[in-house]
Amino acid sequence: MILAFAAGSFMISCKDSNSDQSITQAEQEVAAETGVTYTLDQENSSLKWKAYHKGGLDPRFGTVKSTGTISAENGTVTGGSFVIDINSLTTDPAAVDAAKSGGKTSADLDAHLKNADFFEVDKYPTAKFEITKVAAFDTSKDKSNIADANFMVSGNLTLKDKTVNVTFPAKITVSEMEVVLSSNFTINRQDWGLTYGAEGDVKDWGISQEVDIELNVKAKK
Q1: Total domains in the fold of the chain
Q2: Domain residues for 42?
Q3: Which helix H or strand E contains 35, and what residues bound it?
């Protein structure tokens, strides 16, 4: 599921208008994975992140890899568990213009995000997302920018040593041989205590709290 944001001299912009706002709450009980189990197809799945500065300049974006399984029964996802490899976090070189960043490159940003200022990959090499609930999308109350969104997915997202439950709209199709899920939603990094320096530090103030997550999941039987 995961997740990164730009920091320091990498200043960021306002969030993608196509991204849905997620709902967060305390950690919930993980759903039992009943029915048929499908395994994530890494080659045909993606987890993309996009992070911002205040002021609308130079968003940073990239990818991170994951593994996992998802289960479904009677055409509906029942559960799933995914491990996100934070060491695989990569910033797209197109997101960083060295002429604007004082010579910094996407590789420099990758290294910064993985050090003790942020994800501390030496101590926390992975993150985790575990589905807690999948409910039908209710058009009378649920809103989404995703065309044909048909479910609301809730899950416990663990980053470093904190777990928060996140709910977001998704389009899910279940067939005999595969499950396909797509979603684009926004989280607030401070819900997981992810800050650059102490609270109120000017370095952290320059970074938007919002991070967009785009999921394109294919899992096969």
Answers
A1: 1
A2: 20-220
A3: none
CA separation for the pair 10, 90 (Å, rounded): 15
Q: Would you say 207 and 53 are in contact if contact means Cβ atoms under 8 Å apart?
A: yes
Q: Which two tokens stand for residue 157?
A: 């997202």
Residue 72 CB: number of other CB atoms within 10 A? 24
- Cβ atoms within 10 A of the Cβ of 193, count? 12
Closest among 5, 76, 68, 74 to 40, alpha carbons compared: 68
Q: Is 4 within a domain?
A: no
Predicted confidence (pLDDT) per residue in 105-155, tens digit: 999 999 999 998 889 999 999 999 999 999 999 999 999 999 999 999 999
CATH number at residue 118: 2.40.128.110
Highest mean pLDDT among 71-75, 115-119, 204-208: 71-75
CA pair distance 106, 94, nearest whole angstrom? 8
